[in-house]
Design goal:
nine-stranded mixed β-sheet, 35 strands, about 30% strand, alpha/beta
Length: about 425
């Protein structure tokens, strides 16, 4: 048996359904962010920057691209003979096959992986948040408070606290009450979904709750530990942290990267964000192009105008095209004279010559107003938009669309067009 002081278990199996067509064919942690990165790069980079060299990544929904991106962990220095990164999908057990049915259930199903390292502590992470955190500092806090469980928390506006699990603490930082998305929160300290457990406390809780359907940390494990009288403390974090779980928050957090003084800095030498580095040529910006306050990734060719936008690797923007306040992901082609305003275009798509996206009045989306909002036009991956069409706001388009799919050449604001069958 190998002995590790601490290992990390990274939950990366979620669909992220509130990102709509962006996660129709890819797990949320594998969605592009900031041009060249993917969302999972941030917690993985946090691990290696914090000195944690053993990480289990639990995958489930649409895992192919995520698995390919992680590989053997080379970009994060996690290609180790002992430890390193291990992808942990659901697998068939004797007598039954079982999907992960909750965050804690997923961890429970990988008890053998954790036991192999016989850790003193287990760090539980989510694979779909954007932040920088030194987990070693949190571990030191956990040890100094002689805790069984430490929960990373951060202050949020009181009016938003009911969206989170919130904790009430005493003057020593010990949690005396935990509320999961309460109607009337007693505190504004929100759980970030980051936990450190002593191995003994975690193992006992998971075994006791093993029959619980959809076993979840916030709903089941933390209340169980609380009822058992375990010592649970709050570790307050005051840095940048974003849940990019909605199209609005995803777009907003990308746009924050191009602020003159960005709140979240990708360029800090002492806390680098690592990712896979494809062998592609540098970006090319033609003499007739205009680029203003944007991130342009390697391999992109810019012949038009780019303003306040995030451009992924290998994107081509044709002459006369205008991309404004938008996110364009890897491998996409924007043809001549196309115009994109507040638009998110997923990977390997094509926007036809003279097409206009993000135009017209802002009205609620008719099919899914809870997803397609914030005045955005969203284009799914591998989608083609014909030349000359107009697409409104709060819209979603996916698949190989044709001119006849657009009555009078228009997809009105609030409409969806699905030729890939992802809304079925």
């Amino acid at each position: 048996m190998i002995k590790k002081e601490i290992i990390a278990m990274l939950l990366a199996g979620g669909q992220g359904s509130r990102l709509g067509v962006l996660t129709a064919q890819v797990a949320k942690p594998a969605v592009s962010f900031g041009g060249r990165y993917r969302i999972i790069d941030f917690p993985l980079s946090n691990c290696i920057n914090s000195g944690i060299d053993t990480v289990g990544v639990l995958t489930q929904y649409q895992p192919l691209r995520l698995n390919s991106h992680i590989g053997i962990g080379i970009p994060w220095d996690l290609d180790r003979n002992v430890g390193g990164v291990t992808v942990l999908p659901p697998y068939e057990k004797v007598g039954k096959s079982e999907w992960y049915t909750g965050t804690a259930n997923a961890i429970y199903q990988n008890m053998a992986f954790m036991e192999h390292y016989n850790p003193d502590y287990v760090l539980i992470l989510s694979g779909d948040h954007i932040y920088k955190m030194d987990y070693e500092v949190m571990l030191d806090y956990h040890k100094s408070h002689n805790a069984d469980v430490s929960i990373a928390v951060m202050p949020v506006p009181q009016e938003e606290a009911n969206r989170f699990g919130v904790v009430v603490t005493d003057d020593q930082g010990r949690i005396c009450e935990f509320q999961e998305k309460p109607e009337h929160p007693k505190s504004n300290l929100a759980s970030m979904g980051i936990y450190i457990f002593t191995w003994k406390a975690l193992k006992e809780a998971l075994e006791a709750l093993s029959e619980q359907e959809g076993c979840d940390f916030g709903k089941h494990v933390i209340p169980y530990c609380f009822d058992k009288g375990e010592r649970i403390v709050a570790y307050e974090f005051n840095g940048y942290w974003k849940d990019v779980g909605t199209l609005g928050s995803y777009w907003e957090s990308n746009m924050e990267l191009i602020d003159i003084i960005p709140e979240f800095n990708l360029y800090e030498e002492f806390w680098k964000i690592y990712t896979t580095n494809d062998m592609i040529p540098p970006q090319y910006i033609s003499s007739g192009a205009r680029v203003y306050r944007s991130l342009i990734s390697d391999g992109s060719e810019i012949f038009g105008t780019v303003e306040n936008s995030i451009i992924g690797p290998g994107v081509r923007i044709g002459e006369g095209a205008v991309v404004r306040d938008s996110i364009v992901m890897q491998g996409t082609v924007i043809r001549r004279n196309a115009v994109l305003d507040r638009t998110i275009v997923a990977e390997n798509s094509e926007i036809g010559e003279g097409a206009v996206l993000g135009t017209g009045e802002e009205v609620p989306n008719r099919a899914r107003p809870d997803i397609y909002s914030y005045g955005l036009a969203v284009v799914g991956e591998n989608t083609s938009v014909p030349a000359g069409v107009k697409i409104g706001k709060n819209t979603a388009v996916t698949g190989a669309t044709l001119p006849e799919d657009y009555p009078d050449g228009v997809l009105a604001s609030g409409e969806t067009l699905d030729k890939a069958g992802v809304f079925a």
